[in-house]
Each structure stands twice: as C-alpha cells, then as structure tokens.
Amino acid sequence: QVQLVESGGGLVQAGGSLRLSCTASGTTFSSIAVGWFRQDPGKERELVARITRSGLTIGYADSVKGRFTISRDNAKNTVYLQMNSLKHEDTAVYYCAADPGGIITNSPRYWGQGTQVTVSS
C-alpha cells in the first residue's frame, strides 16, 4: 500500500516562502507520478503542480506559475514544492497525491493527509 506523508506547512506572511515535502513509502518511488493539490473551504480542489515519474515533465497551474517549483529526489522517495512570493489566496490545505504510471490524473489513486498552509496578509 502506497503511503504519502506531507510536511512543511505552516503560517507565513505574504511575500514569504515555504517548502513542502512529500515522502512516499510502499512503492518504487520512480514508478509513480506525483502532484500537489490544494483545497480551501468553499473552493474547488486545484492541481497546482505536477511532475512525471521521471521528473522530466512538469506542469503548474496559472495561479502559481513563476512562484512555485516542484521537484523530486527519487533517491529520497520525496517530492518537494517550493513556494515563494506567497499570497493570501495561497492559503489552503495542500495535499500530495500520486498515480502509478507516467502522469498524474485528476483523481489520483493515492493521497496524503494534507498539510495546512496559511498566508497572512
């Protein structure tokens, strides 16, 4: 069974930075595609960043492009989300999710428990 554990959330002032980590177990990490989703109460879930199992293909939502960077270290079974120039509207619970195969889907098979990111204005 694949398990995903997020860490790194917290409270930060607008303009600040945070780095989220997602560590996987129970699978060959290089065999899964990973994405970071976020959801704030009353809003739809949003896929903010995704990375293929090879790390060669990366995508971002327009709302975070140029501010967030996704990366992965297959030797550490970990995917990172570096978030810079944070805005109040980035406040949400951030979830790491994964799918077997090359690309993350809109309904991933595996989910982490989520980590809260709060950006104060």
Please give a handful of descriptors for the protein shown:
121 residues, mainly beta, 11 strands, globular
| Overall body shape | globular
Quaternary state of the chains: single chain
Average pLDDT number:
95
**Helical amount among residues, as a percent range?**
under 10%
The fraction of residues in strands falls at over 45%
Could you tell me the radius of gyration in angstroms? 13 Å
Which structural category do the helix and sheet elements fall into?
A: mainly beta
Q: Biggest sheet, in brief?
A: 7 strands, mixed
Distance between the termini: 40 Å
Q: Enumerate how many helices there are, as a single number.
A: 0
Listing every helix as H and every strand as E from the N terminus to the C terminus, the arrangement reads EEEEEEEEEEE
Number of extended strands: 11
Low-confidence stretches: none
Q: What does this protein look like?
A:
- The structure is a single chain.
- With 121 residues, this protein is an all-beta fold.
- A hairpin with a 6-residue loop joins β4 and β5.
- Strands 2, 4, 5, 6, 9, 10 and 11 form a 7-stranded mixed β-sheet that branches.
- The chain is built from no helices and 11 strands.
